[in-house]
Amino acid sequence: MYIGIDIGGTKTKAALVNENAVVNKVCIPTNKDSAQFFDMLFGVIDGLLVPEVEGIGIGIAGMVEGGKLLSAFNLGLDNLDIAEAVQAKYNLPCKIMNDAACFAIAEGFLGQTENLVYLTLGTGINVGVINGGRLFPGANSASLEYGQTTLFDKTVEGCVSGKALLKAAADAGLQCDTPEEAFQKSVVIREKFLFSLETVLVNICNTYRPQKIFIGGGLAPMVAPHIARLGTALSTKNYGYRNAPAVSVEVSAVAADGGVLGAAMLMQI
After folding, report:
1. Other beta carbons within 10 Å of 39
2. 227, 260 in Cβ contact below 8 A?
3. Helix (H, G, I), strand (E, B) or coil at 224
4. Which of 54, 99, 127, 258 is the most exposed place for a label (fewest CB within 10 A)?
């Protein structure tokens, strides 16, 4: 039995996981205050801890190397040795990885897809890659930061993310409380967002050569009605796959609990 924790830019989810199934879970707002971060983390763990727990896995929206968070742009956190702190407090093994990698682990191993890219679409955006049945974590196990690569004249995250939608709404003089509201309220914003997402998916195909691309994260339900359009973009614009097998794109079947399941699976791989 393990505890899996998914720390995102807006929400933190945690679950007690037994045999890759969620037994009990909690969800709270992410505390981005560095002085209170560990209080939040330990409070979540304390609420789920039982004697049978053998380890704690953590996925976080940031760049991770080993057990240390190097930088989390959307959280405003840097240089936190999270694994060491958890191990010292609970005397349990702890592993930490980028949240997109955790989602990819869950989708890859539960869905039995050997080559996939998992795109987390939420406050920010990032990818996790399973290549040949194994996680591709980047050099020195420092996780990928696809959201910080370039698209048009911005970063990918600056074009395709919850933050990007809210900024586009503000720039257009629209009062929107959520990214979903901005997406629905303005046809111009919605079309620009979907076109940017199409471009991201084509770039992913031509970079990683996956069998499937899965979309998860908090904004996955928002783009779900447009999944056929995204699939058409892949089949018509994916120049690198001419005369090669098609790449499918779908909303992740484990999107709701994939982050915590993948984090728990870190302790088993």
Report:
1. 11
2. no
3. helix
4. 54
Give the integer Cα–Cα distance in Å for 190 and 196: 10
pLDDT digits (tens, 9 = 90+) for 110-163: 877 888 999 999 888 989 999 888 888 776 555 678 888 999 989 999 999 999
Please write the tens of the pLDDT for every residue from 188-236: 999 999 999 999 999 998 888 888 999 998 899 999 999 999 999 888 8
* CA pair distance 98, 101, nearest whole angstrom: 5
Token representation of residue 128: 């996790």
Q: Hey, what domains does the chain have and what are their CATH numbers? A: 2-101+257-268 (3.30.420.40), 114-251 (3.30.420.40)
The answer for residues whose C-beta is within 8 angstroms of residue 36's C-beta and 6 or more apart is none
The backbone torsions φ and ψ at residue 186, rounded to the nearest 5 degrees and listed phi first, read -120, 120
DSSP assignment of 186-250: -HHHHHHHHHHHHHHHHHHHHHH--SEEEEESTTHHHHGGGHHHHHHHHHHH-GGGTTS---EEE
